[in-house]
Amino acid sequence: MTVKLEIPVIDLAGSDGAEREKVCKEVVRAAEEWGFFQVINHGVDESLMKKALDVYTEFFHSPLEEKMKVVIPEDSIEGWKHPKLTQTSDYLQHVSSAYSAEYVANSWIPATPRYTKNWPPSPSCLRPTMIDFVNAGTGLHEKLLRMMAEGIGLESDAFVKYFADPRVSIRANFYPLKTDGSFVGSLDPHSDISGTTLLTDFVDGLEVKKDETWVRVHPLPSGFVVNVGDLVEILSNGRFKSVLHRGCPNESKERLSVACFYMPNDNAVLAPLKELLVDGQQTKYKAVRFDEYFESFLANGNNLKGRIQTLKVED
Ligand SMILES: O=C(O)CCC(=O)C(=O)O
Ligand SMILES: [Fe+2]
């Protein structure tokens, strides 16, 4: 008999009351064993999640001239990119070689001119929707990081304190339904550069590496798919896993995924938490400043787990 593997589903309904300790342990187990899980009853309004998918669906279906207004400029990674219809700048070359689906990526927090200038102007409800969405998403990221810390016996803010003045980015990936001869990209295997990532996605297509197999995720309509990013792997000294995953088109439906990345500010220095280096535990990662880690991502791309390997301390 083959056992069908599924990423864990965690109900957060009791997580602010008497059940908190139990739910924290479930989050910890999922972050250790899978690096991926789904959460339900997470407190983010389901209609806001649906609206976020709707505004991006409208964006991807808008005429080329509309999308070209926010095409990724030469010196940036923020904006819209289509692997066949847009140029790839030198700056983006390494990153985009591993990424071949049509996408739009923007940082929404902080809302400084560096980022706001390439926010899609249409549809007109995209900006207000996404501002609400990233604020709600930020609350959930913080909550999950607190639960991970509490679940391993640390102070609740042991992880979140590294994310003061965070950068919160959205990457919407579009996988149209393949009709004969038409181009449909996919997102090559990668780990995320974030602390944590929340994925909103109602159609199957995400696949997660578990040991040596690719496991397909079946997203629950009102749930978020959560994954541990490289930065939480580093902070937890490898206890929580930032695992490879890939985005595939669906065989019978158009598919859209909206990833919300929770990242620290540029100056944050990430290293395994001192509280975890007890009882002979050695540090497994070198300290790195977030802007430098991000630059290494731009310079080397997402070549599987290559990026985080550069920080590994030899045994
Ligand atoms: O589209 C997907 O299923 C994966 C999205 C993803 O992993 C990302 O945007 O980082
Ligand atoms: Fe990802």
TrEMBL record:
PROSITE patterns assigned to the protein according to its UniProt record, in alphabetical order: FE2OG_OXY
Every Fe2OG dioxygenase domain range: 166-264
Record carries keyword Metal-binding: yes
Any one GO molecular-function label of the UniProt entry: metal ion binding
InterPro entries: DIOX_N, IPNS-like_FE2OG_OXY, IPNS-like_sf, Iron_ascorbate_oxido_reductase, Oxoglu/Fe-dep_dioxygenase_dom
Keywords assigned: Iron, Metal-binding, Oxidoreductase
Keyword field contains Oxidoreductase: yes
PANTHER family reported for this sequence: 2-OXOGLUTARATE (2OG) AND FE(II)-DEPENDENT OXYGENASE SUPERFAMILY PROTEIN-RELATED
Entry similarity comment: Belongs to the iron/ascorbate-dependent oxidoreductase family.
Protein name per its UniProtKB record: Fe2OG dioxygenase domain-containing protein
Annotated source species: Riccia fluitans
